[in-house]
Specification:
By secondary structure, the chain is an alpha/beta fold. It contains nine helices and seven strands. Strands 2-5-1-6-7 form a five-stranded parallel sheet. A hairpin with a 2-residue loop joins strand 3 and strand 4. The N terminus is likely disordered.
């Protein structure tokens, strides 16, 4: 079993996998877990940091894809021109990024080995098969009309972009079926926070 699959039954902390489709409020819920004292590993945030100004992945990415970085870190448009539509080049990029994220995750697990529960914030938990490597799946969900309203209010978002993103994600109904627990964000922030607090208390009691 790899470090990404270290589970509570092996003596480590209980690992929660938090996920939710676009516009469901996953980031808000993740911050509520963090406020409740649950350590969170956000792989996307780690990648952004490692690819940002002075990031540790910048030298390797620049060496593999010349002209794809600048003093602000990775130039996403420039990097995209190297890898878009080219599976071999995309795999080359992933071979740089994935091991680095794995090392960060392993360190996170080691740092929190004595913690009762920890949380992995994984947007594509089901799509990437990550639900098989956690102890508990928590899905953040809201009514479709509320999801649509939230997403279309984002700067630069269009109906076409929204529908394209939805097409790439596991449908909310399927996520809910695969969940151990569901956090409903179609309510007030206070009600959502109460759901999170109750769930944290329940999981800690285990």
């Amino acid at each position: 079993m790899t470090d990404t699959q270290t589970k509570a039954k092996n003596g480590g902390p209980m690992i929660i996998g938090l996920t939710g489709s676009i516009g469901m409020g996953k980031s808000t819920v993740a911050s509520m877990f963090e406020a409740a004292g649950v350590p969170i590993f956000d792989a996307d945030a780690e990648v952004r940091a490692m690819q940002g100004p002075g990031g540790e992945l910048i030298p390797a990415i620049e060496a593999a894809f010349p002209g794809s970085t600048n003093d602000q870190g990775v130039d996403r448009d420039a990097l995209g021109k190297h890898v878009f539509g080219d599976k071999a080049e995309l795999a080359r990029l992933e071979s740089i990024v994935h091991p680095a994220v794995g090392a960060k995750r392993a360190q996170f697990l080691a740092d929190n080995a004595a913690t009762p529960i920890i949380l992995f914030d994984i947007p594509l938990l089901f799509e990437g098969g990550g639900h098989k490597a956690v102890d508990c799946v928590v899905v953040v969900s809201a009514p479709p009309e509320m999801q649509r309203e939230r997403v279309l209010a984002r700067p630069g978002m269009t109906v076409e972009k929204f529908e394209h993103i939805l097409g790439l994600q596991t449908p909310d109904a399927e996520k809910r079926k695969g969940a151990d627990h569901i956090i409903d964000t179609g309510k007030t922030l206070a009600e959502t926070q109460a759901q999170v607090a109750a769930l944290v208390k329940k999981l800690r009691s285990k």
